[in-house]
Structure formats: C-alpha cells, structure tokens
Design brief:
Blueprint: H1 2-37, H2 56-62, E1 66-75, E2 78-87, H3 94-106, E3 115-121, E4 124-129, H4 139-154, E5 161-166, E6 169-170, E7 173-174, E8 177-178, E9 183-184
Parallel strand pairs: 4-5
Antiparallel strand pairs: 1-2, 3-4, 5-6, 5-9, 7-8
Helix pairs in contact: 3-4
Length: 193
C-alpha cells in the first residue's frame, strides 16, 4: 500500500512539470514561427540591413579576395602611387586590409595608426581610424596620405567619397586639409599652404 501512495504522489508532482515543459515548447515554437514568418516588415527601414550578412551579394561585392595595394614613393616633390595585386587574408575585410597596408607602407603615419572599421553608406566610406592617425603632418605628408587612401578606396565598387572618424567622432582636419565633409576618392584635395 505504501508503494501505491508513492506512485500516486510522484505522478501528481510530475504533472505540473510536464505541463510547464509543454508550454515552453509551444512558446518556443510560436517564437520561431514569428521570427521565420512575420515581424520583419515591422522593423523600421533605417534599422534594416541593405544586404543580409553572409549573403552571396555582400561577399561578392563587398569582400573581394584580391585587392590593389597602394604604396607611395616620392620622386623629388612629385608623389607616385605604385600598386600591386595581393590576396586578402582569410577573415579580413579587403578595404581595411588595403587601408592598413597603405598606412604602414607610407611610413608617414605613426606605426599604430590604422583603420579599425568601415561602413559604406550612400557611396561614402565611413572609416573609423585609431586615435594616433589624427595628428598634424607636413604638407607633402598630408597630400600623400589623403591621395593614397583615396586611391586605395577608389578601387572598391560603391565608394565615391570618404570621411574619417576617431572613436565615432569625425576627423575635422588633417593638418591644413578640411575633412568636415566627405572627400571624393577620385581627385583627393590638397593642402591649402
């Protein structure tokens, strides 16, 4: 008789547990159905992604597997920009890779000056650079940096202009060059000195 009471007691105590599990499973199923079949049209347009991450279009257009790496040289007072093709290391954004290559090879920017992020919005590359990039350079150096960075970005489809940011704040000048507005990547501005 004692074992019969235990069985009845165990079946009564597991009843609410089974009901809670069933409700949880139904809730997860409803949530999954909502995510899969509804709700996306209610996301504000300004928050939606233009191209889903990982889609074939974004991989093909935004992340080429090879890029032109730009290296500056001076012949007297004339700036020359040499280019050579290079594979982009796996997992790296081609645009950031190319920018950082240029900054390193220019030997003008400090060694720790680098691009840390990039977004392209309405044809404007919004490039987030490390704080050490934002300093005063000589007139020839400003010209070399801007022309080289613009030449680097001009190779990428959909980029017509560039604007630089440090920790989310716009870089207003690079020495004598006004950067408060995006600058064209084809035909970079020069210093006003």
């Amino acid at each position: 008789m004692a074992s019969k009471k235990r069985t009845q007691k165990n079946s009564r105590s597991s009843g609410p547990l089974v009901a809670m599990i069933a409700i949880g499973v139904l809730g997860l199923g409803a949530l999954a159905a909502y995510v899969k079949f509804g709700g996306a049209d209610k996301v504000p347009v300004e928050v939606r992604r233009e191209t889903p991450i990982g889609s074939p279009a974004s991989k093909k257009d935004d992340v080429p597997s090879t890029v032109d790496l730009v290296t500056p040289t001076r012949e007297g007072t004339e700036l020359k920009l040499g280019k050579h093709r290079s594979d982009v290391p796996a997992g790296e954004d081609a645009r950031i890779y190319a920018i950082n290559h240029f900054l390193k090879e220019s030997k003008i920017a400090p060694p720790d000056a680098r691009a840390v992020g990039i977004q392209v919005k309405d044809g404007v590359a919004l490039v987030d650079v490390s704080p050490s990039f934002n300093q005063t350079y000589g007139t020839f150096d400003e010209e070399a940096i801007l022309k080289g960075l613009c030449a680097t970005l001009a190779q990428f489809k959909g980029i017509d202009k560039v604007q630089f940011f440090v920790e989310g704040k716009p870089v207003e000048t690079l020495g004598n060059v006004d950067l408060t507005e995006p600058i064209p990547v084809r035909g970079a501005p020069t210093s006003s000195n």
